[in-house]
Amino acid sequence: ARVLSDGLHSYEQVSLTKMVLLWMSLIAGLSGLAYIFVMGLGRTVTAGMGRESRLFYPFLSIIALFIPVPFFLLQSFLRLGDVTPASVLLAVVTGLLPLVMAIGLVVGVRRRAYGVMGVLDISAMVGVLQWLIVLAVWGLLPLRLWN
C-alpha cells in the first residue's frame, strides 16, 4: 500500500475493492439495524412480540442503545471524554450488541425460520453482526469515549 504524508498526517492508499466492501458492510449493518428496529416496533404494536420471537432480543438491544441518551443530556459537554455514567452505559450497551445479535441469530436458526419473514429477519441479524465484527476489529466496539 502507498502511504502519503503532508508532515502532520499520513494517508494510506487502499484499493477500490476494499472500499466497496467496507461500504457494503456499512450499508448491510445499518439496513439490518433499521429493519430490526422497524419490524420490532411493528410486531410489538400489532402482535405483542414475546420472548419466543427471533427479533425479541435484537430489538431489545437496539432499544437499549437509547438508554445512555438522557445521561448524556444531563452531563456537561466538556465531560464527553471522561469516564461518566453515560459513557460507561454506552460502552456496556454497545459491547453487548454483538452478543445479543448472535443470540437472536441462534434463536432464529433453531426455530427453522424458512418463510420470507424468517429469511429477512435472519439476513438483517447477519448484516448487523458482520458490521459489528468489522467495528470490533477496528477497535471501535465497544464504543468507549475515554482513553
Question: Your description of this structure?
Answer:
The protein has helices spanning 16-47, 56-64, 68-74, 85-110, 116-137; strands at 3-5, 10-12. It is mainly α and 147 residues long. The protein has one domain (13-137). Strands 1-2 form a two-stranded antiparallel ribbon. A hairpin with a 4-residue loop joins strand 1 (3-5) and strand 2 (10-12).
Count, helices: 5
Radius of gyration: 18 Å
> What letter string, H or E per element, gives the SSE order?
EEHHHHH
Placed side by side, the strands forming the largest sheet appear as 1-2
| Biggest sheet architecture | 2 strands, antiparallel
Q: Report the mean per-residue pLDDT as an integer.
A: 93
Give the overall silhouette.
flat
Q: Determine the strand fraction and express it as a percent band.
A: under 5%
**Alpha-carbon distance between the termini?**
29 Å
- How many strands in all? 2
> Could you name the ranges where pLDDT drops below 50 across 5 or more consecutive residues?
none
Binned, the helix content reads 55-70%
The structure class reads mainly alpha
Number of domains: 1
Per-chain topology:
Elements: E1 3-5, E2 10-12, H1 16-47, H2 56-64, H3 68-74, H4 85-110, H5 116-137
Antiparallel strand pairs: 1-2
What brief labels describe this structure?
147 residues, mainly alpha, two-stranded antiparallel sheet, 5 helices, 65% helix
